[in-house]
């Protein structure tokens, strides 16, 4: 955690937040028009000493719930909130609440692509896909809209017999996929819900467990992807993976013929 930068960011925005904007009376002489450290600590239900240490970059750790409260009190914009969580290297719990509205715009993006395309979140759950992707990955993406869990690429790869029949050179692709996943998750792998997903896959798949313990890391660079489709026969694509500018935890995957 870049604690000094995180502390400076919080202090600067604390000093920009007026007492009136958070429902506090502006009483007494102030060196700054913004909130006092004690006032922000009270509003966030932490001790002034802890907040002082956080602003001074003294190595204290802030949970995602507490960061969300700080963002709320300081009236951070969406971009500022994202930056706050990035500095703290924490997952924003608000992402789960925003999924329903975000999925509509993500779906419009993949629908506009003339070829298999899908969107993955940080857990590699598919949050949007088009008809071309559905036709290719029938054993993965053909789920009911009311299903309790989104289709997950790693669960499909390691727990579905359909994946082994569809993906040519399954063993090599599985090895690279786990290495790409480790690179993609970084320090977030120890946080929920990623930690639970990794534990589940390691429990249910000896192959995933072995590959995860190998500590291999590669970037998700794309390249040739070959499939043996049960109806269309052998297919070959060039994979391109792009990150969304405003939602860097989202990846757009496009398969070009």
UniProtKB/TrEMBL annotation:
GO terms for molecular function: DNA binding. Residues 9-81 form the HTH cro/C1-type domain. InterPro entries: Cro/C1-type_HTH, Lambda_DNA-bd_dom_sf, MLTR_LBD. This is Helix-turn-helix domain-containing protein. The lineage of its organism: Bacteria, Pseudomonadati, Pseudomonadota, Betaproteobacteria, Burkholderiales.
């Amino acid at each position: 955690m870049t604690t000094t930068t995180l502390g400076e960011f919080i202090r600067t925005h604390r000093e920009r937040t007026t007492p009136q904007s958070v429902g506090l009376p502006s009483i007494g002489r102030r060196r700054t028009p913004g909130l006092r450290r004690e006032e922000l600590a009270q509003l966030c239900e932490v001790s002034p000493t802890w907040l002082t240490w956080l602003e001074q970059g003294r190595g204290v750790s802030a949970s995602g719930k507490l960061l969300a409260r700080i963002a709320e009190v300081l009236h951070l914009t969406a971009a500022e909130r994202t930056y706050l969580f990035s500095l703290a290297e924490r997952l924003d719990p608000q992402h789960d609440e925003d999924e329903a509205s975000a999925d509509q715009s993500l779906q419009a993006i993949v629908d506009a692509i003339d070829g298999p395309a899908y969107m993955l979140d940080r857990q590699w759950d598919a949050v949007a896909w088009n008809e071309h992707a559905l036709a290719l990955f029938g054993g993965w993406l053909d789920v009911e809209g009311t299903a309790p869990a989104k289709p997950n690429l790693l669960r499909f790869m390691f727990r579905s017999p359909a994946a082994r029949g569809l993906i040519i050179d399954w063993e090599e692709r599985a090895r690279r996929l786990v290495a790409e996943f480790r690179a993609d998750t970084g320090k977030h792998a120890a946080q929920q819900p990623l930690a639970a997903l990794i534990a589940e896959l390691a429990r249910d798949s000896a192959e995933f467990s072995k590959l995860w313990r190998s500590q291999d890391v590669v970037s998700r660079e794309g390249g040739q992807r070959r499939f043996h489709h049960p109806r269309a026969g052998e297919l070959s694509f060039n994979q391109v993976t792009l990150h969304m500018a405003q939602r860097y935890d989202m990846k757009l995957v496009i398969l070009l013929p």
